[in-house]
Write a structure and sequence with these properties.
This protein is an alpha+beta fold and 142 residues long. It has five helices and six strands, in the order E-E-H-E-E-H-H-H-E-E-H. Helices cover 35% and strands 27% of the residues.
Length: 142
């Protein structure tokens, strides 16, 4: 379907389908700070672990899995945390000492270009961390 010489933006259907879309005022992202046995820190996001997409999409599958592993119910954490730890170990292919899950938040202002500064979150909160004992227990049970 062409509208005004262009193609209807199917990828943004959720935005237009409600008829009263309001742009978000805040954006949140989870990222993992992983320290390896050599003392190097690696920063990973859910999209680095579970998708091959770029960062312009919502990364629904990877985000939902990591969100449940970090902030879910106790039952969800018991199920998803071992998978998360194994995936981080697989992606980095190194011995892991510690994993910290952080949530970064930004205020979104569509009057500015770009609407947020990805390098300057307004809030950073530690959600969870896994030490060497937890990581080794999970990896030993493979």
């Amino acid at each position: 379907m062409a509208l005004g010489g262009g193609v209807w933006p199917f990828i943004w259907w959720e935005m237009y389908s409600s008829g009263n879309y309001t742009p978000p005022k805040r954006a949140n992202r989870i990222e993992f700070h992983v320290q390896d046995s050599d003392g190097h820190e690696h920063i990973l996001r859910p999209m680095d672990l579970y998708t091959i997409d770029d960062d312009s999409s919502r990364q629904a599958a990877g985000y939902q899995l990591t969100y449940r592993a970090i902030t879910g119910t106790d039952e969800q954490k018991a199920i998803y945390q071992p998978y998360l730890i194994r995936q981080i170990a697989f992606v980095l292919d190194t011995e892991i000492q510690q994993i910290e899950a952080w949530q970064n938040s930004w205020k979104v202002d569509f009057e500015n270009h770009p609407p947020l500064d990805i390098e300057q979150p307004v809030q950073t909160v530690l959600l969870d961390s896994f030490n060497t004992d937890v990581i080794n227990t999970v990896l030993a049970n493979e």
